[in-house]
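Blinded run. Sample ID left blank on purpose so nobody reads anything into the name before looking at the predicted structure. Input follows.
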Amino acid sequence: MNKTAQYKFTIISPVYNEEGNIERLAKALADFMKISVEPSVCVLFVNDCSDDNSLKLIQKECSQRERFYYLSLARRTGLSGAIKAGFDNTFSQFVGYIDADLQTTPEDFNLLLPHAEEYPLVMGIRANRKDSAWKNFQSKFANGFRKMFTHDGATDTGCPLKILQTSYAKRVPMFTGMHRFFPALIQLQDGGKMMQIPVRHFPRTAGVSKYNVWNRLIGPMKDCFAYRWMKKRYINYSVGKENLS
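Blinded prediction complete.
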């Protein structure tokens, strides 16, 4: 049996070349477990084929801490692929997501968790962002362009702090770049609705950002057209009666 099935809430953290953050991240997650409003919590690191010491550090943390697990991908897939791998290998009721750079804090999952039973997606809005003015402009522009295409109502879809009901997360059609469209993709499903809550934001203190003008601005704009194509062809169904169980 998959070990995450023993818990109610699994926190996924995709990792690509974050050796300077792994120890801090593991400690922050372990500290959160002590104060979580949901006591049944585990952590799942998804190593996206890092070529630094990230995997060794992840393995060390998982060997020393209870309720810490990992999987390491055989080849690099990008953030959307790493998140999908986490969803596919999670069997708890809820699945959370946080970036390894600790620009958000696990403590703020406590702001999201009380709403997870009612909303298939509960997501943060980064308050008082600590990024550069140029980076903030790119994100604001990309968010506005996405909202115009999707009408999803999401203020900050790039916020790396989210909780999803796992049954919904597993039905999200994932392609490269689709992690930016979680609100719109959740809303395609029957009963799909979301809630947004302000969370704290911090400057990056170790490692380097994996984003640039292409994957923060140009790529997401192109993905909007892919979403519009997919939305028209999305198959949505619910089972009325069955005798399988």
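Unblinding after everyone has recorded impressions. The mean pLDDT is 87.
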